[in-house]
Design goal:
about 90 residues, mainly alpha, two-stranded antiparallel sheet, 4 helices
């Protein structure tokens, strides 16, 4: 069992400040496309939907987004395993 409230508190503490996204000097869309190519090659999967646009996030936002997604995606934490299921947008 995971105490998500405690996990959120620890993530906020670890994230520190500032809470705003850093300014990036990189071509984020190009890096996403390159990464998607590596991911497709490694997994041998093709996206079933377009990849979402990249969004720069600060550490605190990144932690929140990930904590929000974990309870619904991790069968071990919620009590219902989902073998063979991959999160969108990837499909076998």
């Amino acid at each position: 069992m995971v105490d998500w409230s405690l996990a959120r508190q620890i993530a906020r503490f670890a994230a520190g400040s500032p809470t705003t996204a850093p300014r990036l000097d990189a071509d984020l869309p190009a890096l996403v496309e390159e990464s998607a190519g590596h991911l497709r090659a490694y997994t041998e999967l093709e996206p079933s939907a377009p990849m979402p646009a990249p969004e720069p996030l600060g550490r605190a936002e990144w932690a929140e987004v990930n904590l929000d997604s974990l309870p619904s995606r991790s069968g071990w934490a919620t009590g219902y395993p989902r073998p063979g299921r991959l999160p969108a947008p990837c499909a076998p």
